[in-house]
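Researcher: Structure for this, please.
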Amino acid sequence: MGYPNKIILSDVDVHRVVDRIAHQILEKTDGAADVVLLGVATRGVPLARRLAERIHAFEGRTLPVGTLDITLYRDDLRHRSPRALGHTEIPPGGLDGRRVILVDDVLFSGRTVRAALDALNDLGRPAVVQLAVLVDRGHRQLPIRADYVGKNIPTSLSETVKVLLAEIDGCDEVRLMGAGASPAGRADDTAKEASA
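Model: Predicted structure, token format:
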């Protein structure tokens, strides 16, 4: 196709990064006691489930996993085409007084995280909220940083980061795509950037 497209993380790398984040969560949360993982739709959901699986493999601890749809909390809602609402699912026991770790694939402007925090306000009052991301690509527009980062990838604003996960895309891979990336890839990444 001739589009600039560089693989930043292979499938092996993605698995390694998820393992590392799982270990970091265990270290920083005293064994993940009272931790709830909330995956931000779309790709944060399978990542949250993978983290829970790895933590269970490492420590034998079963973490509650939920999903968070932030569609109605986006600050660009009126500028976007209507889309179907996603699914929010809070694990039994709720969020009050617990350590909630939001999980997403890419941290960019910080606007997705802001929307997720707004959504959390309507769902409960966690004791602590932390953020785990597979990739931090920089270019923050809000004072937000991740507590757990799989990989920092310096990018230009004309580039996009595309995360592919087996549960959704059929393979695990992270690609850095240039300004001339394929239309399909650009559509997904533009959505991610707009929501980030």
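Researcher: Any notable elements?
Model: The longest strand covers residues 99-107. Residues 12-155 form a domain with the Rossmann fold fold (CATH 3.40.50.2020).
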